[in-house]
Design brief:
The chain has 406 residues and is mainly beta. It has a domain of 266 residues: Jelly Rolls. It is 6% helix and 29% strand. Strand 12 and strand 13 form a beta hairpin. The longest helix has 6 residues. The radius of gyration is 39 Å and the shape is elongated. The two termini are 29 Å apart.
């Protein structure tokens, strides 16, 4: 089964579900390794001393990129702008959530991010804490995946300038269809591709999800790319800008890059979970295990007989007959003796407390001797020991542990 004959993408939608720590620009905290320059006016000591330090080097100025001919969509900002003229802000609500939390009413702003190394490098910044944010825009034209030799490339930059605790910054490409109202775009809006970073707690993800329509059943299923082996944690916590790129090739292969480094790749047909192409053979759902099915691979040899000289009464260990008590062993000396320094307490009442006895201490005579008390021979392995006899195991033939009758 190949990819759908004609799967169009009409809309580019950015869906961001953000926790408190995600609200970029909502806090004044700066990274310890912030790239922003500091002027002389920031140092009161220099002001008092009248030091005229050298001015910091000027930042490079953002230059609008040249959009390739035939691009389906490109968005960048060179100055503060009216978002409503460029993007569609969602007015929808998230289902199954309290009314105060369900609205997509997070505030967006076009401004220069914190610690920007480039002057006038404006970006789309989320300003609201613990709010749902969603914007969308139309592509120049639908993208058809049935074009021979056509490569699909989607990439965008994300900067979690205040770090990330729980939330996502992923893009959804919505499927071409009638009756689409972008103002009602939410997490339930049908999409064709979902791609981008997502994190909650210690669970870090770089989503690539494909919604595929089964050509036989007509059912739409989500196909998830395997989790990248790369360490994703730094992308969420280093407060730097990262470029996320998804490439889909006409041979049904895919590639995922972060900062132009390959972090994931595979086949759209075989390496997604579950795979687009089902396996050639599956278990028969109507088959049942026969009542006489024997799953044992090995069985006791029914022809085996216990040898006549097999003695099951012999113990596993016996006393070492060759052992000799070490010279100097103090047989008559106990291991412990009453403490000669112990004294009966003055308030000891034998009528109430019973007969007083000094505490026991290690016998000092035993410290120099090889041992004290009764001596016994150590145990050794009994050469005559065989244990309880059991028949040897043989192959259970014909074995039917994991197969069918025929």
């Amino acid at each position: 089964t190949a990819m759908p004959h004609r799967m169009k993408l009409l809309l580019l939608a950015l869906l961001l579900l953000l926790a408190t720590e995600l609200a970029a620009g909502a806090e004044d905290a700066r990274s310890p390794d912030a790239e922003a320059d500091v002027s002389d006016d920031d140092d009161p000591a220099d002001d008092k001393a009248g030091v005229d330090a050298a001015a910091p080097p000027a930042k490079p100025v953002f230059t609008p990129p040249k959009v390739p001919a035939g691009a389906y969509y490109a968005q960048f900002f060179t100055a503060p702008s009216n978002l409503a003229e460029q993007l569609v802000l969602s007015k929808s609500k998230k289902e199954g959530v309290d009314s105060d939390l369900s609205k997509y009413d997070g505030f967006w702003s076009v401004e220069v991010p914190e610690s920007s190394a480039i002057d006038a490098d404006f970006a789309l910044v989320l300003k609201s804490k613990a709010k749902h944010h969603a914007v969308s825009a139309k592509l120049a034209k639908p993208f058809a995946f049935d074009q021979p030799g056509k490569q699909f490339v989607m990439q965008y930059e994300v900067k979690f300038q205040n770090g990330m605790d729980c939330g996502g910054a992923y893009v959804k490409l919505l499927t071409d269809g009638p009756g689409m109202d972008l103002k009602e775009f939410n997490d339930k809006t049908p999409y064709t591709i979902m791609f981008g970073p997502d994190k909650c707690g210690m669970d870090h993800k770089l989503h690539f999800i494909l919604r595929h329509k089964n050509p036989k059943s007509g059912k739409i299923e989500e196909k998830h790319a395997k989790k990248p082996k790369a360490d994703l944690d730094s992308y969420f916590n280093d407060k730097r800008t990262h470029l996320y790129t998804l490439v889909l090739n006409s041979d049904n292969s895919f590639e995922v890059y972060v900062d132009r480094s390959l972090v994931n790749s595979g086949s759209l047909l075989e390496d997604m979970q579950p795979p687009v192409n089902p396996p050639k053979e599956i278990d028969d759902p109507n088959d049942k295990k026969p009542a006489d099915w024997d799953e044992r691979e090995k069985i006791p040899d029914p022809k085996a007989v216990k040898p006549d000289d097999w003695d099951e009464t012999q113990p596993e260990f016996i006393e070492d007959a060759e052992a000799v008590m070490p010279q100097g062993w103090l047989v008559d000396e106990p291991l412990t003796v009453p403490d000669p320094k112990a004294e009966k307490p003055k308030d000891w009442d034998e009528d109430m407390d019973g007969s007083w006895e000094p505490a026991q201490v290690d016998n000092p005579k035993c410290k120099e001797a090889p041992g004290c008390g009764p001596w016994t021979r150590p145990k050794v392995k009994n050469p005559k020991y065989k244990g309880k006899w059991s028949a040897p195991m043989i192959d259970n033939r014909p074995t039917r542990a994991s197969g069918s009758r025929g």
